[in-house]
Amino acid sequence: MVLRLAAAREQAAAGVDYSPRFGARCPWCGARVKVYATQPWEGPVRVRYHRCYRQGCALAQMNVSVKSIEVDPVAEAGG
Ligand SMILES: [Zn+2]
Questions:
Q1: Spacing, Cα 55 to ligand 1 middle (Å)
Q2: Predicted local distance difference test score (pLDDT) of residue 73
Q3: Which domain range does residue 58 map to?
Q4: Can you tell which superkingdom this protein's organism belongs to (predicted)?
Q5: How far out from the chain centre does Cα 70 lie?
Q6: C-beta separation of 47 from 24 below 8 A
Q7: What's the pLDDT score for residue 76?
Q8: CA torsion angle 25 27 31 36 (round to 10)
Q9: Tens digit of each residue's pLDDT (9 = 90 or more) over 45-58
Q10: How many structural domains is the chain composed of?
Q11: What are phi and psi of 78, to 5 degrees?
Q12: Are 66 and 52 within 8 A, CB to CB?
């Protein structure tokens, strides 16, 4: 359990995938996480920061922010 939580925290810090349709999901509980900061596009990549608010979620309880990474495939191909 502790190891799994450490892995979820690591993933939250390193960045999870962002879907324009479904947003980002909490690496611990799988709930959709709310955006609180959106960075400008940097090339094909855009970074957002989220928080999980699901009751009982360990990351929500610890106020761990979840980073997400969106990659635009068109920008990536065209430059
Ligand atoms: Zn969560």
A1: 8
A2: 85
A3: 2-78
A4: Bacteria
A5: 9
A6: no
A7: 67
A8: -60
A9: 999 999 999 999 99
A10: 1
A11: -90, -30
A12: yes
Q: Which of 68, 69, 63 is nearest to 51 (CA)?
A: 63
Kindly give the residue spans of alpha helices, DSSP state H, lying in 1-79.
Answer: 2-14, 58-61, 73-78
User: What b/e readout covers 6-28, taking b as 16+ CB neighbours within 10 angstroms?
Assistant: eebbebbeebbebeeeeebbbbb
Tens digits of residue pLDDT in 1-43: 678 999 999 999 999 999 999 999 999 999 999 999 999 999 9
Give the distance (Å) from ligand 1 centre to CA of residue 46.
Answer: 22
CA of 74 to the centre of ligand 1 (A): 31
pLDDT for position 60: 97
Comparing CA positions, the residue from 69, 78, 75, 77 lying closest to residue 16 is: 69
